[in-house]
Amino acid sequence: MSTSSEKILVAFDFDHTLVDENSDIKIIKLCPGGKVPADLKHQWKKTGWIPYMGAIFEYLHENSVTESDMKNIIANILFTPGMSDLLEYLRNSCFEVIIISDSNSVFINTALEQNGFKDVVDKVYTNPAHYDENGLLKIAFYHFQDWCDFSTENM
What we know:
CATH architecture: 3-Layer(aba) Sandwich
Keywords: Hydrolase, Magnesium, Metal-binding
Oligomer: single chain
Cofactor: Mg(2+)
Pfam families: Put_Phosphatase
Family: Belongs to the HAD-like hydrolase superfamily. PHOSPHO family.
Largest sheet: 3 strands, parallel
Binding site for Mg(2+): 13, 15
């Protein structure tokens, strides 16, 4: 049994774990006609997922998709069944809750805030993202590594 100063670490992924879908795939549905243009689809194979999503965010911005539109999509992704109950239980101060995800900070923080669980999560390890002064969602690598074949370059 732990002493009063020790906490129990609980770690989650975001997509298909905390939420019941993939947040990037949901956002892609905001593309005109719900489809990614062929030239952008090919970019994923050339540059990887994070630069690909950066290009998607630029495409959405060029097509007048707003920060509000994106937040509404993310806020309406359902949590995985039972996850809300589990997070309520984890509000107890004896837990340290973290998220480790290849998603991005904007999507994760939006989902947590909209569902009332921002205060439950102590730390999020993910790709940093922010809206720039023009309303364009920008994403960056969490970090870059090229030495482990089992991990992506950014996580």
